[in-house]
Amino acid sequence: MKPGAFSMGSMKLSSGGRRVWLLGFSTLGGILLGAFLASRCSRDQLDALQAYITAYSALPEASRAYGGLGTALAFYRVPLLMVAVSFCGLGIVAVPLLAVWEGVSLSYASVSFSAAMGKSGLLLALAAFGVRAAVLLPCLLYIGGTAWRLAYERKGLAALSGRDLRSIMICFAALTLGIILEYSLAPRLMALALAG
Fold first, then answer.
1. Whether this model's pTM surpasses 0.85
2. What confidence tens digit (pLDDT) does each residue in 87-102 have?
């Protein structure tokens, strides 16, 4: 085994693999924290959320405030912040904290939707946040691992290989596809979840 690598069963992890694992655990910690915080919501808060979701779903599709800009912001905010802090030493601390933040926000919203809407809440949460979680989390781990390495090495773009740049571009293309899917599918899936 190479120096600086450790073994987990038969899987060898390089320092890049360790970064991804640590970011994964940071995100998982955020998910658990978000679920805990959402479970602390009062019944009045959940009733208000239920009333909002019900009123929102009753609006004609053209007048809904579910805009593309808000969707893009939800997908791009943390990966772009990770890239931005990767150029300074602050990124060593900020990248894992951003992973925790994304985990908290996704989990808090999903658990709140589930709790507020009762039996249809889980389907509603999957309809509203399923595409985002499926696309954003893997991209977040890759971009975060690369950003964390760049922040640690403090070499900026000079430390970014062509392979890393291509992979990050693929991640942002996947995020863009996720935005299009969520913007076009989530309102319809939410309507189906509320109707069922």
1. no
2. 888 888 999 999 999 9
